[in-house]
Amino acid sequence: MDTAADIYSPSSSSSDVDVTPRGATSAVERALQLIQSDDSDSKLQAAKEIRRLTKTSQRCRRLLADSVIPLVSMLGVGSPESHHESALLALLNLAVKDEKNKVRIVEAGALEPVISFLQNENLSLQESATAALLTLSASVNNKPIIGASGAIPLLVDILKNGSAQAKVDAVMALSNLSTYPDNLTVIFGTSPIPYVVSLLKTCKKSSKTAEKCCSLIESLVGFEEGRIALTGEEFGVLAVVEVLENGTVLAREHAVGALLTMCDSDRCKYREPILSEGVIPGLLELTVQGTPKSQTKAQTLLRLLRDTPYPRSELQADTLENIVCNIISQIDGDDQSSKAKKMLAEMVQVSMEQSLRHLQQRALVCTPTDLTITNSCTSEVSLK
Questions:
Q1: In whole angstroms, what is the distance from residue 80 CA to residue 122 CA?
Q2: Could you tell me which residues are beta bridge partners of residue 17?
């Protein structure tokens, strides 16, 4: 049997199609008739069929939008408990990659029963409810409504005590919700960092889970109590450094952002905890191979990590090489110093190769005809 996680996993969502499969139109019409029925068994059959039809078809999600209200009614206390999960999974599929359905589901009153399922003893229903909140929280319009509904403390409790899959979905939902400022304050008030760090330490550092954990941590260390909580967790800073070294492009950006926020807030307090986890090689790599944001943040953090916060003389420029040499001179052990110097040399070589390739590409694109000067100037692309 498919789990809720199957619905929005990269492998399944990438198979979405924009055309209605052959024979699906009649199936859609039949499902809409059944879901409006007064017969309990017919409703259950319809919910299962809607889930099937909307699993891979964006068009079916739109065609079955009218099923939202009757599906939400199946989540209520008056419906048989056996109907709850089938209706919830159908709603989850309807919401995937469909902003209008996400909003429609919340407006239909789904949040109250879904939130109650987070506390249900049925772990399968609990997981499905967490997955539903993850999907619904991706909507900008839903973020403040979910935040005000009381869902956040329950999601943090799932992050603490839930199943492995529910923990992953909970941290992703919290990361989604944290982009709304009022929600971030509520999230911070639940003291979630120990549970986020616990998940980060055990998950694969190149995973989407690690990316969302670091996104949430980057937001939470904007509070002093959040910075204290992270450094107070055993191997907490190390887990962030490991993502900086091995994470996805976006995860590395969040990781260096979190460390920069800490060091920038109180250099004297957080410089040593960051340096002691061997952050230098990863930062050096980011200065060359990271996104533009990552590169800037890595360079800024390297400057903050140098031994003295005061500017050098004009004869000693504040170059990356000087910054790094200053930092590694403070690190005990010849092996680590040698490793950092070697890494710097490799980064310089990579930077030179990238610059050369860029120049070669420009040379290929910039032909003599490209250099012809014209008398006209336009701010728009001509229609062809």
A1: 14
A2: 57
